[in-house]
Amino acid sequence: MSVGTWLTFATDANRFQEMTNLEISLATVNFNFLIPFWSSFIQSFGFVDASRPSLANVLSNGRSLALVVGGARESLDAHHGTCNILLEKRKGFVKLALQHGASIVPVLSFGENELYWQMENPPGSTLRNIQDKLLSLLKWATPIFNGIWF
Q1: Given this model, what pLDDT does residue 41 score?
Q2: Domain containing 62: what range?
Q3: Does residue 139 sit within a domain?
Q4: What pTM value is reported for the model?
Q5: Considering its fold, how many domains does the chain have in total?
Q6: Which candidate in 7, 46, 76, 112 could, as Cys together with 13 as Cys, close a disulfide (CB 3.0–4.6 Å)?
């Protein structure tokens, strides 16, 4: 989960929901709902499964969604000094919004990639091939990172 998304929409640290009066559900990969205790924890913050039927249900009930469009795949390209946004093959959320008459409001959280050091994993490398294989099997990414110490 991206830190900016979590702080902005789950904890409402910057009073976004208070200012907009929107009920916002955050979408995350289904794997998060399979982990005991973690599942209950994220559901208490309003997280929902990022599957198409789940997102359609949220929108049909008049709620808003926060969706990290690039998701797990994008997290594997999160390196210092970069801001790679994966949108090329991610158009389903636009179709879903149109079907439900929902507005799309792009939000970008600056500085996310500066919070952690991710091990170099250029496309085609052994590490990236393993990560891509795990992503296709498990449906969640395995970035190898550590925090920045000052």
Answers
A1: 93
A2: 3-113
A3: no
A4: 0.78
A5: 1
A6: 7
